[in-house]
From TrEMBL:
Family membership noted in the UniProt record: Belongs to the CdaR family.
Source lineage: Bacteria, Bacillati, Actinomycetota, Actinomycetes, Pseudonocardiales
Keywords (A to Z) from UniProt: DNA-binding
Domain CdaR GGDEF-like per the UniProt entry, residue ranges: 178-292
Source species of the chain: Streptoalloteichus hindustanus
The protein's name in its UniProt record: DNA-binding transcriptional regulator, PucR family
Biased composition (Basic and acidic residues): 10-19
Amino acid sequence: MLAVMSSAAAHERSSDHPDLSATTLRKLERASGGMAAASITAMERQLPWFRRLSADQRSGVLLVTQNGVAGFVAWLRDPQQALRLTAEAFRGAPRDLARWVSLRQTVELVRIAIEVFEQQLPTLAADDAERAVLTEAVLRYGREIAFAAATSYAAAAEARGAWDARLEALVVDGIVRGDAEESLLSRAAALGWDPAAEATVLVGNPTSDDPPAVLYEVRSRAARAGRPVLIGVQGSRLVVVLAGPVDGPAGADVLTRMAAAFGAGPVVAGPTLSSLAEAHRSAQDALSGLRAVVAWPAAPRPVRSTDLLPERALAGDPEAERQLVDNVVRPLVDAGGSLLETVDAYLEVGGVLESCARQLFVHPNTVRYRLRRVTELTGRNASDPRDALVLRVALAVGRLARSRGFW
C-alpha cells in the first residue's frame, strides 16, 4: 500500500514541477488572489507614498501584483517560460504606470511583495522539501521580476527620450523658421525649458554623422556648464539654443566650452535675447554670420554675429546693414561735432593722425578727442584694424541707405 502511495505521489509530482505536487500547485493557484491582496495591504502599511496614490493608481499596482502571482504559479509549472511570464506581468500594467511610480518605488513594491510571498508560501508546502523549493523559487522569480521591471522602465525611458528628441527638433526648427510664439513656447515648456530664460543660438558643423553621438556631446558639455540647451541637427548643420546670460568673462567661457562640442569649422553665436520667444532673431543672425564668416579667415571660435556685421553686409544681409546704420552711423550723425567727418577722414588717410588733422585743418588733439568720442558712441576704435573695417563698411552702407531714402 505504501509503495502504491509513493508511486502515486511520484507520478503526481512529475506531472508539473518535479519537486512540487499537483496538490501544492493547486493550493498556490487558489491562494494567489489572497497573496496579491496581502501584498497591497503591506504596501499601504509600509509605504507612505503608496497611500497617497489614487484608487485607480493603486488598482493598477494590484493588477501588476496579481499578474505577478499568476505568473509565479505558471512559472512553477514551466520554469522555461520565466522571461515571457515576467514580461507579461508588466505588459498588462496601465500604460502610464511608469509616470507616477518611479523605478526606485517599483523596487520597493517588489521587495514587499517578495516578503509577503516568503511568509505565506511555506504554509502551502506539503513537507520541508517543498518549503525549500518554494523559498528558492520565490527568490529566483523575484530576481526575474526585478529585471523585468528594469527592462520595462528602460523601454519607457527610451520611448520618452525618442519623443522628447522629436519634440526638441521641432522646437529648434521652429526657432530657425520663426514660428508662432505660442506653439513654440508650449512645446519648449513640455521639455522643461524656462520660457523667461535668456537665449543664445549657436550654429556650426556637427562633430560626426551620428546624431545621437552629437547630441550626447553637446548635452554633456552643457551639463558641465550648468546650462539648459535645445539641440537640432539639420543635415550638415548643428543648431544649439543655450539658456542663460553669456556676457562678461564667465559667459564667454561658457560659449568657448560649448563651441568645443561642434565639429571643425567656424562656430557663430547670435545675439543673446531676453527670452525664447525672441530666439528666432538670434538664430537668423547666427545663420547669416555662418554664411558670411568665410570672408574673415582669422575669425575667433566662437565668433559673435555682431562681430561679423561687415561680412554679413557685404553678403547682402539687410539686417546687418540696418544694425550698422543704427549702431554706428546714426549715433555719429546725431552727436554732430564733425565726428562723422573726422572718422571718415582718419580712415581715408590710413589712420595717420597728423595727416587727418591737416586735412581737417584742426589740431591733432582735436582729432584725438573726436576719435575717443567715436569709440564711446559706437564701441569701435578707429585705430584698431578690425574696428576700422567695421567703421568703413558702416559709413559706406550708411551712404547707400541715405541715397535710397531709408534714413
